[in-house]
Amino acid sequence: MAKFILIAVFMVVLIANFTSSEVAASSGVVVGSSNPKEEGNKLAMVQEEEDMDGGFSSLDGMLQWAIGHSDPGVLKERSEVTQRMSPEELNKRQTELKELMEKLKMPSDAQLMLIAVNDLNNSSLPLEYHLRALEELLVLVEHIDNAIDLQKLGGFTVLIRILNHSEPEIRTATAWVLGKASQNNPIVQKQVLELGALTMLMKMMKSHTTEEAVKALFAISALIRSNVNGQSLFYQEAGDMMLQEVLSNSNLDIRLHKKSLFLIADLAESQLENENTAEVSFFSNRLLLKAIVDSMASSDLDLTEKALYAIKNILLLRSTEVQLFKDFCKLNEVLERTRQQLNDHREEYAMDVESLRKEVNLTFLQKLNKVKETLI
């Protein structure tokens, strides 16, 4: 704190040096002639800022503090001393001040990311240092440009390496950072996919730690969303089996079920938008389709809604075997049971879900009728 005060006072003196002696003298009057009540309020505000963050919030705040706590007569005297300095002495003082201010300057985002990456690379540091570095990156990569620049610092290479860390906390936080960086960022998606992150994240889905699996699924979704190459790789890595296992296991955290259904709906929508791409067997996995349909039986309305969205998008695909939905998945029966369950709810949200259920039912019946027409 003493260094900050010294710099602030010296800056005030330097500023005074560039004015005439008359202005310098009058500035002493102005500084000391403010209304006592107003001056007290200003000082109270500055003191409040110091109490909050342990220092000055800005250079302006530092100058305000220095002026408010300086004696006008002393300032005038020091100004006169400074004016008597030779140009060489004055330049030397100014250079010293500049060097001090450079040291106190806030580091850029790139510098902060580099510090975090270096900490993660340093295996001798305690676990809490690595977790803190990951927390820093989690905030910094929310900015798209920062996320792109992270690879220039070797950041993604380090992050993907520590997906194999022995501590679940580190793996969980790392997956979260990768997911945040990849969200709506095709450049980062490409970089991370090329480094082989998807396969590692899919393996993390088998973790016995719920949070690790949740963050891994979040990262997978962010990595392949609206990314045709990422989705193709996901299909090649048996992504349908991964999601089927999640949805078929009622003991898993409901967040995993919801995220899985959301991902399936998103993949089907992406398939609809890219009509020129070949249809994939992913949406013909009968066990996966049954697991999706069975999810509608949940008492959780949000889960029911996500299951309905997934079914709706899949039914819209040209290659969908609607007879499979009817005979194996018993979709018509489940839709009817869901209608009865929704009737027991009186909240407005249930009405919205019921509207979606009707839409799915209509699409299902229309698709069935088309199949019947082709058989006639």
TrEMBL record:
<dbReference type="GO" id="GO:0005783">
    <property type="term" value="C:endoplasmic reticulum"/>
</dbReference>
<feature type="coiled-coil region">
    <location>
        <begin position="332"/>
        <end position="359"/>
    </location>
</feature>
<feature type="signal peptide">
    <location>
        <begin position="1"/>
        <end position="21"/>
    </location>
</feature>
<keyword id="KW-0175">Coiled coil</keyword>
<feature type="domain" description="Nucleotide exchange factor Fes1">
    <location>
        <begin position="59"/>
        <end position="150"/>
    </location>
</feature>
<dbReference type="GO" id="GO:0000774">
    <property type="term" value="F:adenyl-nucleotide exchange factor activity"/>
</dbReference>
<keyword id="KW-0732">Signal</keyword>
<dbReference type="InterPro" id="IPR016024">
    <property type="entry name" value="ARM-type_fold"/>
</dbReference>
<dbReference type="InterPro" id="IPR050693">
    <property type="entry name" value="Hsp70_NEF-Inhibitors"/>
</dbReference>
<dbReference type="InterPro" id="IPR011989">
    <property type="entry name" value="ARM-like"/>
</dbReference>
<dbReference type="Pfam" id="PF08609">
    <property type="entry name" value="Fes1"/>
</dbReference>
<dbReference type="InterPro" id="IPR013918">
    <property type="entry name" value="Nucleotide_exch_fac_Fes1"/>
</dbReference>
<protein>
    <recommendedName>
        <fullName>Nucleotide exchange factor Fes1 domain-containing protein</fullName>
    </recommendedName>
</protein>
